[in-house]
Every structure is written in structure tokens, then in C-alpha cells.
């Protein structure tokens, strides 16, 4: 496992880390036994960083991480997120009192005294502009409840707003072969300011595994069903903002990336890892097999300059204009 420094912080984290949305809920059925085995396998392979949120299974993914990392709290870093358990648009949800309650609830579920990276969970841009939430986070950091803080954003614009606040140490962004916009200016600027970059949804909700067809279906409690067109939250969180059928068609056009790189999953993750400005990629998982599949990306060949140019042109000509929602 390779490790990269999280911006200007003291944290050195595995370049392939994992997000825990899928084991908490909203990705179809969950199986705690399989999830715990998968977490154990990831840790065995050197993964030392996991991303979660208080709303993933209403805190269930935090509880699973507590079980998986018990006794290793100093070695395994956890990032969690807050604000979506309250009224996302109400400024009082971001007051010191509210943020402290969110934080203390997560600490109880995690069984920890301190959160390594505490992130605002995709708040409205107006909340970021006001800056009150960052004052609350500064207080929690001074009190020792959090080590560092950052923001999970939906759009490049929101990312640039966050970079105006010097104590924001990490940005979590959607970046993949279908969502290349953050690579142009936001990610390099963040790197230059010592802000770490966590890349979520690197497989575009599974589109970039190449396993779906136009006839693929998803369970009723899977966001790839109930949020396919942004019915429940930002449409960009599902299939990178693409209409499903179009995403399947576009993924077929990218099948060539798997040549010499095991499969499309490894290749799509390798694309992210080839960017030196990115700290880590955080794919999701539900079982040991998915953990092992994702970890293979660390050892497959990178993309050549001509291949990168081909991928960037593909995005500009065939993908960019069809992304829905702010990005």
C-alpha cells in the first residue's frame, strides 16, 4: 500500500481508502457480517483511512467502523460528516451548539474521543459563504473533539468557496472519468494551498465497472433506483449525474481502458491515482471481493500521456454536456 500526506496535516493515509455509504444503507440490502469481514480485509492490506457519515444507515456505518477498529484507534483514521441529519438549509444547523451535538453523537457511535477528519456534508453554497460553520469547527478543534476538518462538496464553485477558509484541510469531491471538471483548476489549487483531496464516487455508482446493461435494475432502497433523477438529493451523487442509459452506453466506449489493467474497475481507479494532486480515492464496498477488486488498482499500469489525452477528449466531446445538476 502506498500512502500520501493529507494536505498540510500530519496524516499520511492509504492512497486507496474506502467509503462506507454502501455498508450503511441506500445501496440495496446490507449484511453486517460481510461488511465487517471486508473492513478487516482492508485493514490487513494496509488501508488506514475510512470515510463515513452520520446519515449512512442513520449512524450504522459509524457503528460498524467502531467494531472494526476497536483497539486500533491510533492507527486507523476515520473521517465522518455532519449536517444532513438536520435541516440542511437552516443556518442554526451549523451553529456551534448544533455542530457539537452532531459531533458528540458521532463520537459515541464511533467509540472514540476524537474524530480525525470532520467534514461538512454537502451544505448549500450560502452556508459556506457565511462561514459560521467554520468558526464552530475551530472551537471543536481547540477542544480536542476533532483533529482536522474539511468539506464534502457537490460543485467546483463550492470547493473554491471553501479554499477561502485557511483551516479547511480537506475537500471531498466527485471525480471520475465522467466527472473531470475538478481536475482543471480546483484540485491543483487545493494542492497548492496544502488542502487534501478525497475522491468519492470514482466508479460513478458502478457505471465504470462495466458490469451494467440498459436492463440492469436496482432494489427499492438503493439510491440508484430512488435517486436516479435527483428525486431525493443531488442528482450528481448517482451515476455521476448522467442518465443511466446514457451512462451505460458511454461506459462501453471506455472498455478499452481495461486492456492490461485487469478490468475496468482497476483502470478507473488507476485514472484517479495517476493524479499526484489527489490524496486518496474512496470507493465503496459491501464484501471482501469488492475490497480486493478495488485494491488491485494500486498495482496496475498507469495511463500514458496519449491515453490521458484520449480520455480528456472523450470527456469534452461526449460527456461534459450531459452531466445534470451543479458540478
TrEMBL record:
Pfam entry (one): Aldo_ket_red
Gene Ontology MF terms in the entry: oxidoreductase activity
Domain NADP-dependent oxidoreductase: start-end pairs: 15-315
Classification via InterPro entries: AKR, AKR2_Oxidoreductase, NAD(P)_OxRdtase_dom_sf, NADP_OxRdtase_dom
Signal peptide: none
Domain of life: Bacteria
Family annotation (PANTHER family): D-THREO-ALDOSE 1-DEHYDROGENASE, NADP-DEPENDENT OXIDOREDUCTASE DOMAIN-CONTAINING PROTEIN
Protein's recorded name: Aldo/keto reductase
Species in which this protein is naturally found: Paenibacillus nasutitermitis
Record lineage: Bacteria, Bacillati, Bacillota, Bacilli, Bacillales
